[in-house]
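Page 42, continued from yesterday. The earlier attempt failed because a stray header line got pasted into the input along with the sequence. Redoing it now with the clean sequence only.
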Amino acid sequence: MCDCPEHATLSRRALVAGAGAFVAAGIVPRVGAHAEDKAPPPNAIPPAEALERLKAGNARYKADGGKDRDFSVERAARVQAQHPIAGILSCADSRVPPEIIFDQGPGDLFVSRDAGNVVSNYGLASFEFAVTSLGIPLIFVLGHSGCGAVLTALSASMQRKELPGHLPELVKAIQPAVITAHGKHPGDYLAASIEENVRLGMTRLKTQSEIIGEAVMAGKVKIAGGVYDLETGTVNLV
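This time it went through. Structure tokens are written below.
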């Protein structure tokens, strides 16, 4: 190999030229750049703003069925990360799809669903993950009119009948709401029980999870809830 000065000079020139090209292309990182220099994630918004987005989305859905969406748009970007604006604890009823009801697209909502929108340990863990790792500012408990799970709990309470399988566990989770509704709202017992079940879910999210409770106390997360009217399409806040 030749170690003459000419080759050394050419190598230095090539290195400088290459570095200049990288700088021009914006590839070389800035000296002293830190993680805090990065832009905040799209869901770094106040809890009140997240709730307003859900309310506005429901208004659009009620008015005209919501937006026509191309679900392939930004699919590649969603592979890298997700930034949901809210977590939704929803009933598993097939007529209650949260993304459609709130007119949101893929990646906008972090959803956990089960019959009667009850708070389970798996649901708590899911929302704890969403709070700590995804930074959601809002958790919304979504009940709905004519809820079959609440009706089952109501019927079991009145008739004291034995239920098969794991249904007794579900009924037991909803039972406190039914009892509260009986004492507060003697009129429409089912509607009152559905509403109280949403409130019960909101309370359990805050009290049964230290992680979620602390985030709420710190003002980082808000717990809200509402009842979706199957006939009108409106989500009425409780």
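Notes: Confidence is low (pLDDT under 50) at residues 1-35.
Reminder to self: strip header lines before submitting.
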